[in-house]
Amino acid sequence: MDKAHIGVIGLAVMGRNLVLNLSDHGHRVAVYNRTWERTRDFLQGDAAGRDILGCPSLEVLVGDLRKPRVVLLMVQAGGGVDAVIDQLLPLLEPGDVIVDGGNSHYPDTARRYERLSSTGLRFLGMGVSGGEEGARHGPSLMPGGDPAAWPLVRDIFQSIAAVAEGQPCCQWVGEGGAGHYVKMVHNGIEYGDMQLIAEAYHLLRDGLGLDRDQLAEVFGRWNQGVLESYLIEITAAILAVRDPDGVPRVDRILDSAGQKGTGQWTAMDALELGIPLTLIGEAVNARFLSALKGERERAARAFPAVPRAWDFDRAQPWVEFVHDALYAAKLVSYAQGFMLLRAASEGFGWKLAYGDIALLWRGGCIIRSRFLGDIKRAFARNPDLENLLLDDFFAAAIRQAEPGLRRAVALGIQLGIPLPGFSAALAFFDGYRSARLPASLLQAQRDFFGAHTYARVDAPAERRFHTDWTGDQGEQTINE
Question: Parallel, antiparallel, or unpaired: how do β-strands 140-145 and 163-164 relate?
Fold first, then answer.
């Protein structure tokens, strides 16, 4: 009997669907799950009649694989990945490949890469995006780790990936933890996109008074233009669903958002690298705030909303202003995300190909959108682009959309509707385009209480100064 092309460990939703996808594309798959019952149910259910081998143990799975063996782990991130690797180590041989397709934190991936390299095994950390549907019919895959492993698995994974602009949404990212890092940033941007869409919905519903049918129509129409994306598409679909009594389903869903931590990782990493990832940070904080449901209800009773008059011109195209606010904020969010990728690439020596990353996200993944094609073209025009906002296309786009963002934020402030994502986007944009910021005062304060010194605008940047603020206010040159 022919050996299997690839082994998959873990048959939860993502694992099962990737196995079926692999099978669809002619790959013989050996599968193993910690509980045999799940493997048996899979073989008798969705996998029935397919060339899929059910393995009762890891020993059997490894024995059923052709060499060099390729094993894909689809198990819960964290200690579970290390536990499975420990079990595989005595069964595999130098040259075999282990691929972690879970949502692992990139430092863990880098650590596993170093550990397994010393044993002769080849390790990849591969971000997988697209959810259940993407895994089944074409995900976005972000492989990184051991470069020697990539040629051994490239054809397998590119065959099952989504396709955008004629290219598979599966390309080599970089060494070490690069694949899972790019997936982490993808998830952070996803947090930002979802928060911005929720804020637009909140403003349209509670600020402009649109009913559910109008809201579904607006998001459906927006999906035909520059905001075309998977998340806008599903928002329109969600808003059209009603309970049997006619009440919109979304109105009966508890307003307390969950999260798995990847957005928080992105925000924390940005702090470590000194990148102002303000919008994604606010998206993470908004989820934290939403989880304080009981406190928010008590605060709502303590600080009841004061009715506010409609003292703005209803004849103005407010829905279009909100559309432009969403587009402008999205521009800023992606600009920040690619700032973080650039900092990580330089810091870790990855040499990330930013345009190719945009293409990876163009199909199959949760943030897939028309917008990503524009990012790909921006980096094709200038691979050394310092910031997306400085590209001619994006600069023109944000100039056009900026007035809508300002109007939307002002309306939210006036009506007491929280818009942390929109507000963060506007504050970042205004700060980024300011040639002079009040940080000079911050430096003076730091020098006053801590003698931290400062640079002067009329002296070389490397020269430092200190003022005797409480004495004669004389200034000293520190490093001459």
Answer: unpaired
User: Using CA atoms, how far apart are residues 198 and 322, in angstroms rounded to an integer?
Assistant: 12
**How many residues would you count in the chain?**
480
* Active-site residue list: 183, 190
Q: What is the pLDDT of residues 173-232, one digit of tens each?
A: 999 999 999 999 999 999 999 999 999 999 999 999 999 899 999 999 999 999 999 999
Query: CA separation (Å) from 103 to 14, 26, 43, 111?
Result: 11, 26, 26, 15
Contact 131/119 with Cβ under 8 angstroms? Answer: no
Which residue is it, tokens 């059923």? 64
**Can you tell me the distance from the alpha carbon of 350 to that of 174, in angstroms, rounded to the nearest whole number?**
6
**pTM for this prediction:** 0.92
